[in-house]
Amino acid sequence: MISTEAYKTVNEEAVTTWFKAAPVNAFPSNGGTCVQYKGKQIAVFNFSRRNEWYACQNLCPHKMQMILSRGLIGTHQEEPKVACPFHKKSFSLKTGECINGDECSLATYPVKIKDEHVYIGFKE
Ligand code: FES
């Protein structure tokens, strides 16, 4: 059974491994892409409208669907967010909190861009 167990938020100070995911141009503007890392599916968002990048678990915790990389990104009172395509729950891309006030939340991961490549931070 799929569970959120494998996904824990990583703060930038705690990163032990920067995983080189792909070149920047492999990520569509203002959209998400799913990246695999050691059995985890990570949704990476190139929020080019804000000139920002975000990463979170691809698993929507509402009904355990691997889908969030296909979610719509936008802004809720200045907070960058992703809306799940299934039941439209929205999550902050900064904190992973559910903006609709639900209990479920996402694990988020730091992203850095170096030498035209996207790196995702993990703690191992
Ligand atoms: S599965 Fe994502 S909102 Fe329901």
Structure, described:
This protein is mostly beta strands and 124 residues long. It contains no helices and twelve strands. The chain has strands spanning 17-23, 31-37, 40-47, 52-57, 59-60, 65-66, 72-76, 79-83, 90-92, 108-109, 111-114, 117-122. Bound molecules: FE2/S2 (inorganic) cluster. FE2/S2 (inorganic) cluster (FES) is lined by residues 60, 62-63, 65, 84, 86-87, 89.
Q: Could you say which overall geometry the principal axes of the C-alpha atoms support?
A: globular
Oligomeric state of the chains? Answer: single chain
Distance between the termini: 23 Å
Count of separate DSSP helical elements = 0
User: Ions, cofactors, ligands: which are bound?
Assistant: FE2/S2 (inorganic) cluster
Mean pLDDT: 96
Q: How many extended strands?
A: 12
Largest sheet: 4 strands, antiparallel
Structural class: mainly beta
As residue ranges, the low-confidence spans are none
Order of helices and strands: EEEEEEEEEEEE
Strand content: over 45%
State the strand order across the main sheet. Answer: 2-3-4-10
Radius of gyration: 13 Å
The helix content is under 10%
